[in-house]
């Protein structure tokens, strides 16, 4: 599987990274709602009540990731600068 992914063109690797980040953003958002709301008396379907939030989260976050240059190079190994950039982009996206 790894060899197959490494042979893909750069454009497809970027698309895979964007798709993974979108799924990760949605999963983290769902988990945050689930942790916060489970202890409170909450009636209703989480996705049904907050569908706008789930649509806007990737729309707001991904432009920050793109602007910070996270998709310019497909990374095999991450250094400390990459971790700092990812952290900064995530903080900016969370602030929106």
Count of domain modules: 1
Intertermini distance:
36 Å
Class from helix and strand fractions? mainly alpha
Query: Biggest β-sheet: count, sense, barrel?
Result: none
Unreliable segments (pLDDT under 50, ≥5 consecutive)?
Answer: none
Helix % is: over 70%
Our count of helices gives 5
- Along the chain, the helix and strand elements come as HHHHH
Indicate the radius of gyration in whole angstroms: 16 Å
Number of beta strands: 0
- Coarse morphology: globular
**Average predicted confidence as pLDDT:** 81
Strand content: under 5%
Description:
The structure is a single chain. The chain has 96 residues and is mainly alpha-helical. It has one domain (8-95). It has five helices and no strands. It has helices at residues 2-6, 10-38, 46-49, 51-67, 80-95. α2 crosses α4 (51-67) and α4 (51-67) crosses α5 (80-95). The N and C termini lie far apart (36 Å).
Key attributes of the depicted protein:
5 helices, 96 residues, globular, mainly alpha
Fold topology:
Blueprint: H1 2-6, H2 10-38, H3 46-49, H4 51-67, H5 80-95
Helix pairs in contact: 2-4, 4-5
Give a concise summary.
With 96 residues, the chain is mainly alpha-helical. Helix content is 74%, strand content 0%. The protein has one domain.
